[in-house]
Amino acid sequence: MPYPKRRQRNCKPSRLSLSDRLDVMNRLEMDFQQIFNAAPDIEASAPGRVNLLGEHTDYNDGFVLPTAIPQQTTVYVGHSPNDRHHFYSAELEEWADVSPSESSPQGFARYIYGCIRVLEQIGYSIPPINLFVTSSVPIGSGLSSSAALEVATLRGLRSLLNLNLDDVKIAQLGQQAEIQYASVSCGILDQMACSLADTEHMLFLDTRTLDRQLLPFPTGAEIVVIDSGVARSLADSSYNQRRAECEEAARQLGVKALRDVSDPQMAESLSDPLRKRARHVINENNRVLKVLEGVSAEAFGELMNASHASLRDDYEVSVPALDQLVDILQNTPGVFGARLTGAGFGGACVALVKGGAGKAIAETVLNHYNNAEHRGDTLVG
Ligand code: ADP
Ligand code: MG
Q1: Are residues 312 and 223 in the same domain?
Q2: Per residue in 342-353, is it b (16+ CB within 10 Å) or e — as a string?
Q3: Pocket test residue of 145, 149, 151, 239 for ligand 1, highest count of atoms within 8 A of CB
Q4: Considering the domain boundaries, does residue 101 fall inside one?
């Protein structure tokens, strides 16, 4: 198929008026039309997410506290006129043709095709589709563009084919798609957040039972997310190593997962580095549970600051640039607290700041942080 080239899209949150948004929507449908020579049958979206507290706890059966961000991924889906799947990404300006018998597609097609395959695994018959994806979620910055793509794709297929899937099932299938087809051994945090969170609440989630609650933000506060500009280079190998250390710590403590320990003193019986890893997970779970009691913005900020110190000193997943950015955030007036967010070793930092002050605070912080070495950028705020 002759796929036209598109210009690069701006990955900032949309601040368009309703009529401008409708124009954009019409243009996107036009893009689908241009590319696939037919109108899409359905449109579906899912947001990116940022985790506010509860880092590296999801694969320990623990507690997390994400919120959705304003940026979204949208898919337009229709039936393919032939026996292959056709996918096009506006951001990557890439397309992929995939045979329904393909076992391991490459690139972004893995995420979309993975969703199709996991639906087939549970007994659904999925016809060949045309899928056009466009997104304002920054890709590869730790705001879960991958889970947003999976959840949007699964929502799209649910609408197109009238599939009987609830939002939790969609999250579980998205996680399976990522594990099996993108080879990322992720927990359920990202997909649950993209499937069940909204931008007006924090989503408290017990990753073992999937019990959850939407909680209001601390009064008078909002979120800022700043990319450190440092790529998450060591993230994969270190993530696997931390997972293995946590499993070993749980085994030595005689529990199924570190989530089953609530007293940080218990970690002291282990030798390093397991002692430090377990101490982070136990304290981090306790910090998330503390929020359930209802905390002020100041108290929430303290929990975020303690979380960063624990990720830096006990879990050892920070790097100098993240520490510097967090330090600047924590010392900027109007900031209640800040921490690295995501797996670490680069990526973004999240801060809780005074309501209405996010944009100005992000500008001030970047003025301090950016120099010859650092190119940070505001992702949310
Ligand atoms: P993130 O933190 O953004 O989830 P990941 O490395 O987990 O980072 O996922 C990024 C990958 O997800 C991209 O390399 C791409 O394969 C896929 N992806 C996400 N969003 C899109 C999109 N809009 N178009 C195409 N692929 C996407
Ligand atoms: Mg991801």
Answers
A1: yes
A2: bbbbbbbbbbbb
A3: 145
A4: yes
Q: Residue 297: is its pLDDT beyond 90?
A: yes
The ligand with the least distance to the CA atom of 189 is 2
Would you place residue 147 in the very low, low, confident or very high pLDDT band (cuts 50, 70, 90)? very high
- Judge contact between 158 and 175, C-beta under 8 A: no
The answer to the question of residue 7 being in a domain is: no
pTM of the model: 0.91
Section 151-177 average pLDDT:
98
Q: Which of 152, 187, 171 is nearest to 64 (CA)?
A: 187
Q: Containing domain of residue 22, as a range?
A: 18-206
Q: Say if residue 284's pLDDT is above 80.
A: yes
Which residue's structure tokens are 């605070």? Answer: 361
Same domain, 279 and 247: yes
Residue 158: predicted pLDDT: 98
User: Which ligand does the CA of 137 lie closest to?
Assistant: 1
Neighbours of ion ligand 2 (CB under 5 A): 146
Judged against a pLDDT cut of 80, whether residue 249 lies above it is answered with: yes
